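Late entry, evening session. Most of the bench is empty. Finally got around to the prediction I had been postponing all week. Sequence below, unchanged from the version circulated by S.P.
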Amino acid sequence: MTENQNGSSNSPSPAEDEVAKYRLKLEENANLVARIRHEINNPLTGVLGQAQLLLREELSERARKRVQTIEDLALRLRDVVAQLREVQRPSSDNEGAEPNGSNPPIV
């Protein structure tokens, strides 16, 4: 009796096909999350840094409150971006790395 005649073969079962599809989808989602984190984090670093530099200068009370609001909102965004790391499926060889292989800047 050949392998095909007794019901076993090297082709994946329908269940294995479904698992492979889900794994591919998870990988695509993880890559999307990594790109989103990267694209948000880069300009966010600049906004936060500029706000912090402005807060070192002499400002009117009104301007200081506005810049403080910018800094506070940038810090909130930074926290959301950090939470996206938890959603992203970590891989053992490049955990936390950005899509281009670089590590995200520390804000």
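Two things to note before I forget:
The first helix runs from residue 14 to 55.
The radius of gyration is 23 Å.
Will write this up properly tomorrow.
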